[in-house]
Specification:
With 215 residues, the protein is an alpha/beta fold. Helices cover 21% and strands 28% of the residues. The chain contains 3 helices and 11 strands; from the N terminus they run βαβββββαβββββα. It has helices at 16-32, 99-115, 202-212, and strands at 6-9, 38-42, 47-50, 67-69, 76-79, 83-89, 122-124, 127-133, 147-158, 161-169, 189-190. Strands 1, 2, 6, 7, 8, 9, 10 and 11 form an 8-stranded mixed sheet that branches. A 3-stranded mixed sheet has the order 4-3-5, with no helix packed on it. Helix 2 (99-115) crosses helix 3. The longest helix is centred in the N-terminal third of the chain and has 17 residues, at 16-32. It is globular and about 55 Å long. The relative contact order is 0.19.
Length: 215
């Protein structure tokens, strides 16, 4: 690539429609060759987003927070303060046009960033996102070991340029996830860096993301 991706960190929570508009504009400029790729780090006010596979029955509290159609892959996701969202506007076309490999790269990035804090993240077949084993918690009723989700991943492509991206729970209100079935996955829970007992702030995670970025 001739230019490294630009990193932007939003100083305050960004309304979701504003974020969508920014991504739309930036993707067009990347396609035109008038702007570099972009990694945008931000938080949102409390809200739910519905991906292209979202099922109505998975939205338990439709009046709790605003609900937005995200037009990304995946199902329902919560975003809110204390959660680091990273919107990745990157040229997948110049990276081999391999969507699966690109998603695996995003997953690997999250896992590498979590490892900076001594956490071992896992990818599980049939369960989107990054998971943390919870041997400290009781197993599920069928005996399956409990695992909690710490990061979600959902992307969209336009002419091989990506947008949307990943979200990692630093210290969100985990009760806000109760209004949905996160990513359509029942049984397992949701966790965060602070919920796992780590004294980690947003700036700490941002630094880890920069250190481990594959781009």
């Amino acid at each position: 690539m001739s230019r490294a991706p630009e990193w932007i960190t939003a100083p305050a929570p960004v309304p979701y429609p504003e974020a969508l508009a920014f991504m739309e504009r930036r993707v067009e400029r990347i396609l035109e060759g008038t702007a570099p790729e972009c990694l945008w780090l931000l938080e949102h006010p409390p809200l739910y987003t519905a991906g292209t596979s979202a099922r109505p029955e998975d939205l338990h509290a439709p009046d709790r927070f605003p609900v937005f159609e995200a037009r990304r892959g995946g199902q329902y996701t919560y975003h809110g303060p204390g959660q680091r969202v990273v919107y990745a506007m990157l040229d997948v076309g110049n990276r081999g046009r391999d969507v699966r490999r690109f998603v695996e790269t995003l997953e690997g990035w999250v896992i590498a960033a979590l490892a900076e804090f001594g956490l071992r993240g896992h990818i599980r077949a049939g369960r989107v996102g990054v998971w943390i084993e919870r041997p400290d918690l009781a197993p599920l009723p069928d005996g399956t070991p409990r695992e909690d989700k710490i990061a979600a991943i959902g992307i969209r492509l336009r002419r091989w340029v990506s947008f949307h991206g990943i979200s990692i729970n630093v210290e969100p209100d985990l009760g806000h996830f109760d209004g949905i079935v996160p990513c359509g996955i029942r049984g397992h829970g949701v966790t965060s860096l602070v919920d796992l007992g780590l004294p980690v702030g947003m700036a700490d995670l941002d630094a880890a993301l920069r250190r481990t970025a594959p781009w």
